[in-house]
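Why this split exists: single-chain examples teach little about how molecules sit against one another. For that reason, every record in the complexes split bundles all components of an assembly together and asks for one structure covering all of them. Below is a record exactly as it appears in the raw files.
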Amino acid sequence: MEHATQILIALNKITAAYNGKVVLENVNLTVRSNDFIGIIGPNGGGKTTLVKVILGLLKPLRGKVHYKGDPDPGKISIGYLPQIHKIDYKFPITVWDTVLSGLISDKRLVGNFPKENQNKAANLMAELGIGTLSNKPVGELSGGQLQRVFLCRAIISNPDILILDEPNTYVDNKFEGELYETLRKLNDRMAILIVSHDVGMISAYVKTIACVNRELHYHESNIISQEQLLAYNCPIQLITHGDVPHTVLHKHEH
Amino acid sequence: MLELLQYSFFQNAILAAIFTGVTCGIAGTYIVSKRIVFISGGITHTSFGGIGIGYFLGINPLIGAAVFSLLSALGIEYMSKKSEIREDSAIAIMWSFGMAIGIIFIYLTPGYAPNLMSYLFGSILTVSQTEIILIAVLSFIISMFFIIFYKPILYITFDPEFAKTRNLPVDTFNYLLISIIALTIVLSIKVSGIILIISLLTLPQTTAGIFVKNFKSILLISVIIAVTGTIGGLFFAYAMDIPSGAAIIFLLVLLYLAGRGIKLLKL
C-alpha cells in the first residue's frame, strides 16, 4: 500500500522568458510528495528556466505556481543543488559553513546554529563520506566531494522536495551511479526532481520522466520510446543498461 | 617622533587611520569575495563628480561625493538584475562620466581649488574633527552589521540563488551592503584618495588570502593588515612629506610581498 501522497508543487499553464526570449510555453506539471521525476530536454530547451520558476527565482510571464495550494514558495521546504558552474568555488568558505548554510532561514537570521543542528550536520556529512572535510575551503575539493557537500547543504533541512540541476556536471559518468543510489534512498523521505541532459542514466533510476523543449511532455513512466524522442526533439544521447552499457546516438535534423 | 602624538592634528590622523583601516578591512573582504572590485572602482570614481559639484556650490565636497557614490551604488545594484544591460560597460561609462563632471565643475568654480589634490591622492593630516566622527560612526555600524548578520551576509554573498530558496531577504541585504560600501568609499577619500582607495579595499584581503581561506579569518586579518597599513602609511607620509594615499598603498604592497615571501619559504 502506498502512503497518501500530497501535491507539493503545481505549475499551471506557465509561460516564462529568459533574457527576453520565451523559452517555456504553457507548461503544466504536478509534483507529488513521493515523486522521483527526471526532467530531460535539449540545451536551451528551458530546463534551467523551469527549475528557476519552480524555485520561485524567476517570475513567469503567465501562469501560476502553487506550493501546497499556496502561491508562496515558503509554504514548502525546497532543497536545491545548483549546477557546478553556478558556484564560485574560489569563494573563501569552508565545507562546514557551506553545509550549515542549508539550515538558515528567514526566521533565524542571526546567532549561532544550535547544538542539535551542528550534530545533524556532522552526522549527515559522515553519512555521505565527507566528514573529514569540515575545515577545508570548498576550493580544495574534487568534483565528487563538491557534489556531496552541496547535496548535504540541500538535504540537511529535510526538505519536502529536492531539486537537482544537472548534478552530473560535477563528476564523471562512472561516479554518477553512487549519487543515484543515494537519491533512491532519499526518495523514501522526499520528492526528487532531477534535471539532466543524460537520458539513459536518469531513466534507470527515476520513476517518471518529463521532457521539456519549450513545451513539457510528461510521461507517467520512466520508459522513453524512440517515437517520443523523435516527437519531442529530446536529447540525442541515450544510454541503455544491458550487460554492457552502450550508447545509441540518434540524429536530429532540426 | 613621539612628540608628534601631542599635536591634535596628528591624533586626529591616527584615529582616522584606525577607523578607515577597520571599515576598509571589512568592506574590502566583501568586495573581494563577491568579486565586485570593478564595481567598487566605478563607485569611487563616480563620486568625483560629487566632489566637483560640492566645490562649485561651496558645500563640503564629501557631501556631494556621498550623494554621487550612493546613487551610483544603488544604480549598479539595480542594473545588475536587468540582464539586458552589459554591466561592465555601463560601469565604465559611469566611472568616466563622474570624473568628467567633477573636472568640469572644478574648472567652473572661480578661483583656485585648494584641496583638490587631497581628494585625489589622500591627505590624512587634514582630516577634520567632523570627518573623524563620521568615520568612527561608520566603522561602528559596519562592524556591528557584519558581526550580527555574519551568517546571512556570508551565505547570500556565496550563493544568492540558494539563499533565495531559503527565503532570505537577498535583495535587501545586497542594497544595504552596497550602500555601506559606497559610504566606506566616501569616508576613505580623505585618507587614501579617490585614485588609490581600491587598493585599500583589495590589498589587505589578498594578503590575508595567502594564508587563510575562510571568510571570518580574512575579515579579521584584513582589518589588522589595513590598520597596520594606514597607521604605518601615516608616519611614512609625514616623514617623507608625501601624500598619505600613496604611502599607505606602498606599505600595503610591501606587506603583500612579505606575505608571499613567507608563504614561499614555508613551502
